[in-house]
Amino acid sequence: MSIGVVVFPGSNCDRDMQWATQGCLGMPTRRLWHEETDLSGLDAVVLPGGFSYGDYLRCGAIARFAPVLQSLVDFASKGGRVLGICNGFQVLTELGLLPGALTRNRDLHFICEDAELTIASARTPWVAGYGAQGHLTLPIAHGEGRYQCSTDTLKRLQDDDAIALRYSTNPNGSVDDIAGVTNPKGNVLGLMPHPERACDPITGGIDGRRLLEALLN
């Protein structure tokens, strides 16, 4: 299993992600500069957290035009696994690989705390390891993590069983308490919480490990 972690100008969680996948889980991991287009040899691609291109215009709005993401669309269409965390989730919605949008938190404050989550659907392999209705705690750190979508889109997400994670106590005002969603195929997951920061009992617990271990299956 070989993992690629995209690095944009402004990314700040790419090293955290590489530490989790390679250091904790032993997966060969290479960082992909945003101008690269060759994804050959990779089994999964991660879009990490941070502030891609300084979050100018909107979070992820400029990143969606990066050359590496044009290759990512084809990669995902062929079944390649794609994981977007925090800013990476924002980028996936701007790119159109996931529906909806991430907007300013309900109270307009940056939130940095642990969030209790429930597994809303174990259909996707990303969270199957937790079991249906499983619970986990992951850190969040965002100012624009409020997931919003139209009523029709929400119904489609529900019908497709594509809501992967919900907040137990909604910290940011996201519709339907949504913390993470997948595409209909289940190979693309976007979530605001940070599983890479919960892979070591010393630094933040291990609730994120099973999600990242899905890369090995």
Task: Please provide a brief summary of the model.
The protein has 217 residues and is of the alpha/beta class. The protein is built from five helices and eleven strands, in the order βαββαβαββββαβββα. It has a single domain, classed as 3-Layer(aba) Sandwich (Rossmann fold), CATH 3.40.50.880.
The proportion of residues forming helix, as a percent range, comes to: 10-25%
Work out the number of β strands.
11
Indicate the CATH topology. Answer: Rossmann fold
- What structural category arises from helix and sheet content? alpha/beta
CATH architectural group? 3-Layer(aba) Sandwich
CATH level 1 class label: Alpha Beta
Strand fraction equals 25-35%
- What is the element string, with H for helices and E for strands? EHEEHEHEEEEHEEEH
Largest sheet: 9 strands, mixed
Explain what this protein looks like in three dimensions.
With 217 residues, the protein is of the alpha/beta class. It has a single domain (3-216), classed as Class I glutamine amidotransferase (GATase) domain (Rossmann fold). The chain contains five helices and eleven strands; from the N terminus they run E-H-E-E-H-E-H-E-E-E-E-H-E-E-E-H. The strands form two sheets. It has a nine-stranded mixed beta sheet, sandwiched between helices. Strands 5-8 form a two-stranded antiparallel sheet. The protein is globular and about 40 Å long. It starts with a strand and ends with a helix. The mean pLDDT is 94.
